């Protein structure tokens, strides 16, 4: 039986905290019958400054994302793109958590099954010193031109899955599969999105007033902040500069 169809996905973010950090790029490829049939790639304006560490890692600059669509608008298209295909990624739990949280923030739902190429590679290649995406790509002869860019990483993860499945004779009959074959099966990953309320008008006014009074540059888009994010920014300003009125 042929390998399952899936959407390979990868994201780049401003950090690793799901409820605090922002997605700055989503890349995905839809693979049907072992072939890429559709692609998705989009940079996203996070409404905050990209940390230098992230720019150094990904090559994505502030100029690259300024003026791009916001995450809510992009998620509408992404949810439509993935349909009900399993979502595949290299350490998919990271990407899935961010995607599901941001879908929920936009009043959308992602409940797709997942496939993790890290888990499969651990089972198949316990002898490898590293199963990082770039190392695994090199080991399997999979092209990875721009590591740490979402589309290239997503496509590489998809090709890695196909390579590993080919070594396993392409079996995806999971009900009668051996234990070695079952590792290829899509599974449920339970991530419960945290409820995030939008910034209140009172918070918005107070935060803007604080920045003006202390002559602070607003290096964020106040309209995109959640209630908890606004509270953290207000508390940080108060602890560093005081009220001054």
TrEMBL record:
Keywords: Exonuclease, Hydrolase, Nuclease
Nucleotidyltransferase is among the record's keywords: no
One of the protein's GO biological processes: DNA replication proofreading
Annotated CDD domains: DEDDh
Domain Exonuclease: residue ranges: 5-170
GO CC list: cytosol
Gene3D superfamilies: Ribonuclease H-like superfamily/Ribonuclease H
Keyword Hydrolase: yes
Superkingdom of the source species: Bacteria
One Gene Ontology molecular-function label: DNA binding
Pfam families reported for this sequence: RNase_T
Protein name: DNA polymerase-3 subunit alpha
